[in-house]
């Protein structure tokens, strides 16, 4: 499955227009996003990791007063972000190499982090910590259990990976985050498995 994981960057670059067309704009994530926002200060800085084309997640954050920095490996998707939300900060880059040299009030990795292999996911947690200010919130989606799965997008293999919930908890704790909410396959949010935590140390 490693080949499928390695092809994620290329897939979302080549099929950016199709993803933009197909990504739903109905915000089933609103409850989780608003819970995330409730943990942040006024006019917060938020890092959207794997931001895609900025809709609907970044749009929701921007409309609620967030200063968004978005990073995605797909240059065409980032170009759409820059067109739609020119006042925000949009970067082309691989989250596995994330190193902005600054800390933000909130971090979100919705439907992006789970495209990494389990080993790459493990290596992300120190990067989360290095970009999180004291008390920062971290919201991400994962799989429900340890394993790898292959879906399909535009007729190509679409990789997903996940750790065991106990390992996510351990990695969060080891990097100074406390779990606030965890929902496995939330029926009110399209079956997403969701983690909401905040930095405590």
TrEMBL record:
Originating organism: Bosea vestrisii
Gene3D superfamilies for the chain: Vaccinia Virus protein VP39 (3.40.50.150)
Top-rank taxon, per record: Bacteria
GO molecular function, one term: methyltransferase activity
Pfam families: Methyltransf_25
Methyltransferase domain residues: 46-132
Protein name in the entry: Class I SAM-dependent DNA methyltransferase
Biological process according to GO: methylation
Keyword Cell division attached: no
Keywords from the UniProt entry: Methyltransferase, Transferase
Database matches in CDD domains: AdoMet_MTases
Methyltransferase keyword on record: yes
């Amino acid at each position: 499955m490693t080949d499928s994981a390695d092809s994620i960057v290329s897939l979302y670059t080549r099929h950016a227009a199709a993803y933009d067309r197909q990504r739903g704009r109905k915000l089933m994530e609103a409850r989780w996003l608003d819970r995330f926002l409730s943990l942040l200060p006024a006019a917060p800085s938020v890092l959207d990791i794997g931001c895609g084309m900025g809709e609907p997640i970044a749009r929701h954050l921007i409309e609620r007063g967030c200063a968004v920095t978005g990073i995605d490996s797909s240059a065409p998707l980032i170009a759409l972000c820059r067109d739609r939300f020119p006042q925000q900060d949009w970067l082309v880059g691989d989250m596995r190499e994330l190193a902005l040299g600054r800390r933000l009030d909130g971090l979100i990795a919705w439907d992006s982090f789970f495209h990494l292999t389990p080993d790459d996911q493990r290596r992300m947690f120190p990067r989360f910590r290095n970009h999180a200010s004291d008390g920062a919130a971290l919201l991400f989606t994962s799989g429900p259990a340890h394993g790898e799965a292959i879906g399909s997008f535009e007729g190509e293999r679409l990789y997903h990976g996940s750790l065991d919930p106990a390992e996510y908890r351990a990695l969060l704790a080891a990097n100074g985050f406390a779990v606030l909410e965890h929902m496995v396959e939330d029926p009110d949010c399209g079956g997403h498995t969701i983690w909401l935590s905040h930095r405590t140390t």
